[in-house]
Amino acid sequence: MKQNVLVTGTGREQALGFAFVRRYLEQGDMVFASVRKPSEALEKLKEKYPETLNILMMDIGNTDSVVKAAKEVASKVDCIDLIVNNAVTTSPDCGKEFMDTNLDYIAKAFDVAAVGPLRVIQAFMPLLKKSSQTAFIANITSEAGSIGACYRTNMIDYAMSKAALNMASKTLHNSFKDDPKINILCIHPGWNRTNEGNAKAPLDPYENAETMRLLFEERRNVKDGDLFVTYEGKIYPW
Fold it and tell me: By Cβ atoms counted within 10 A, which residue in 25, 27, 221, 225 is the most buried?
């Protein structure tokens, strides 16, 4: 079944969001790829998929921007069947140890990475509710958001925001548990080769995006399974 899909954080060609966009376009789906600023890579991809790729300007750190984007999407399609909340940000001090970290950076990173996906879900909920199947929300989180498995002494802003996104996903799961029209999952996508700094990562974003695409379909109607899982569908500790 063809779907209307929204993917956030899609501007970088080598990154995971862009890979999701490619995979869903290859399935023949209608894709809304959101970016905060123009992306040359997306514009080039649209030349190949002029009818099914929609580039959506949306800043998930700004409620008005998200609401405006939802209205734009609603003017083009009747529903959204799947949201991949992939967009994230980190502070300039993300890699620093605690005593060297400017704590004033944390709130902005938190607002985008943790609250941003909630803005998207809230604004697009009317479109999700109109899906002819069970609408699915995939929140791309991280092992860094696990309290039980935490080993780091840095990345405080990123880890805090992902832990908060996990809690938000659980809270929404509780809200949706009796609603057959909507489901949610939070996924640790593994370590991907998304930039030069991740050159030694074991996972290719394009291949991994397909692994997760299949996982989302497998889990679309599963209400009682593990909520925080890896890209392979294995349970990850909260």
Answer: 25
Are the C-beta atoms of 208 and 161 separated by less than 8 Å? no
Contacts of 122 (CB under 8 A, 6+ apart): none
Q: Which two tokens stand for residue 152?
A: 């780091």
Question: Over 90: is that where the pLDDT of 176 sits?
Answer: yes
CA–CA gap between residue 33 and residue 45 (Å, rounded): 11
| pLDDT at residue 88 in the model | 87
pLDDT exceeds cutoff 90 at 182: yes
What one-letter code names the amino acid at 39? S
The secondary structure of residue 143, as a DSSP letter, is G
Confidence (pLDDT) at 198? 77
pLDDT reading at 30 higher than 90: yes
Whole-angstrom distance, CA of residue 12 vs CA of residue 15: 5
Phi/psi region, residue 35 (left: phi>0; alpha: psi -120 to 50; beta: rest), is beta
Q: Report the alpha-carbon distance of residue 61 to residue 104 in Å, rounded.
A: 16
Beta strands in 175-227 (DSSP E): 182-188
Put simply, whether the predicted model's pTM sits higher than 0.85 gets the answer yes
Can you read off the two tokens belonging to residue 118? 């909630």
Residue 234 pLDDT > 90: yes
54 near 32, Cβ under 8 Å?
yes
Q: Would you tell me the crossing angle of helices 116-129 and 63-74 to the nearest 10 degrees?
A: 20
